[in-house]
């Protein structure tokens, strides 16, 4: 397929004042600086689109550019900011872009989900690697006490750090924590998929492979090829409370995210204080170094950073926008929160119940549980507890291993065969998952 | 690109009119997206809330082009044998037996020709003879495993499928590929790279009125407007599944079937099930009041 030359004489204005290629390149560059993953390929696509659909007005140009450069819903907001900055004076708001006002709850927080630091900070100090898909540079502090300097004392530091409450960790100890985290593997339980793998002792005959084998033995069915269902790890969803009281813990908990990917579990990570923010794209590309940068960015975006927590609201948002569409279905969902609901404890219970109907298992991690004499009396916590399969503390690294265990429960250890046997559990009243 | 599509769809405005004639009201963004997908040509990835008309867009496009719509519904565990092609083993076996009984010698290569291929949706779309292109709708790609996306890359980029025993089968008339996703997981960058991306927003009230009236012919403007307003009110509530276009159309159809001319609380209450599919949502709406929902006392 080769691109067609522009059909006939171009109808209408064609941005004749300057070189189209240069124009496209510059727009692409401006977008890239704002964090959109613009490649030369996308720019070429944009130029070809301009030829096919000449931008007769600003709305047409908007759509041509957006279709060429935007590759994800999260990128629409940063794109619009750049577009506004570049073409703001050209008149005429892009018409008919749908109903923004009456959207589902949460539609308005686009700004938080796709922060474009380029647009927030002064243009002079455009941050390196800004944007939702780039890896933020490692913090200067982490460079200062690099591995070389701390390695000799790792043994003793590690032991201290492992049992220290996360809220008491100092900056230097966080680096040690990073290394300890490498020891954790978040393995979710196994589940059966539709695909089948060859297995000589499998329960079912595989006709396709049997026939293929038969052809080589002169049509005599010498041996039946068998297969069994392929097993997969269930997906994992981490929902992390980052309100003021939880902040020191959140830094540690978010470091768990790469530990799921490390063992091939597909994981999603969200943070919430008063609203929900999806961090998966940021953390996937930046790993543990991105945690602090991501937290700072979320903190800057959430106006009431250390204000009240709306757990119920955040859970509802997760259920509505992600969970129900499939992200939570069959998944292990872990909520890291102290259960201090600022608004409506009833909502926490309601949404936790919904979440439990969607998810395979719900694990609640509450660092306050470790305190002597703790009772789950905080309104939100009490309401949510009946709907959780596991309730663990996870206040220190040592306690995090409990969290990893709680997540893996139901997988029947490493044995694949046992993984299948557990499948019936969920159907039969879920068995409360404490097997 | 064939001159066929060039003539049938000369510019975005022409495509918009053609879609309009076939009962699909597309906003300028979607029209541009479909137009570019057709003419660049490049696969189009559509995302949006459930019920905003992603699948309908592909159907309407196929209708405009006059070609077949080949649909591949994705699910967890979908593999190449069900999406691209599979060898017809039974027929191969029969072929061998037949050759034996006739005393013919059969070379291995004779058994792996196109006549022994079972065409699954993707291959069907690729081998469509034309002249009008087929529309290949790969629905809810996010439901398939992530490794399934790799199977699609060749189809998306080259309009071709490589079958080891046969070679590469290239499309006579490249199909227009439309992928839809509900965003239950992120798609691979390699897939996105090959696609145009369009996010379909929920339509504004005036547009909703026009859409539902188009889809349920013979309804009064008054009723359609009342429904659009009610749906808009509902979407301000914190309900689990906000009604989409599809539900609005169902609701209007239900009301029309009951012979309702003017939306009142009683009629709304009787037909609420067409609009809200969760018990909790229905309770919430009733709590807020059906009078409020239908805007009794003539809303402004």
TrEMBL record, chain A:
Residue intervals of the VWFA domain: 233-401
CDD domains named among the record's database cross-references: vWFA
One Pfam family matching this protein: VWA_CoxE
InterPro entries xref list: UCP010256, Uncharacterised_CoxE, VWF_A, vWFA_dom_sf
Compositional bias ranges of the Low complexity kind: 113-139
Membrane-spanning ranges: none
Region: Disordered, residue numbers: 94-152, 412-435
PANTHER family, A to Z: BLL5662 PROTEIN (PTHR39338:SF6), BLL5662 PROTEIN-RELATED (PTHR39338)
Protein name per the record: VWFA domain-containing protein
Organism whose genome encodes this protein: Actinacidiphila glaucinigra
From TrEMBL, chain B:
Domain AAA+ ATPase as annotated: residue spans: 40-222
GO molecular function terms listed in the Swiss-Prot or TrEMBL record: ATP binding; ATP hydrolysis activity
Superkingdom of the organism of origin: Bacteria
InterPro entries given in the database record: AAA+_ATPase, ATPase_dyneun-rel_AAA, CbbQ/NirQ/NorQ/GpvN, P-loop_NTPase
Protein name: MoxR-like ATPase
The species this protein was found in: Actinacidiphila glaucinigra
CDD domains named in the record: AAA
One Pfam assignment: AAA_5
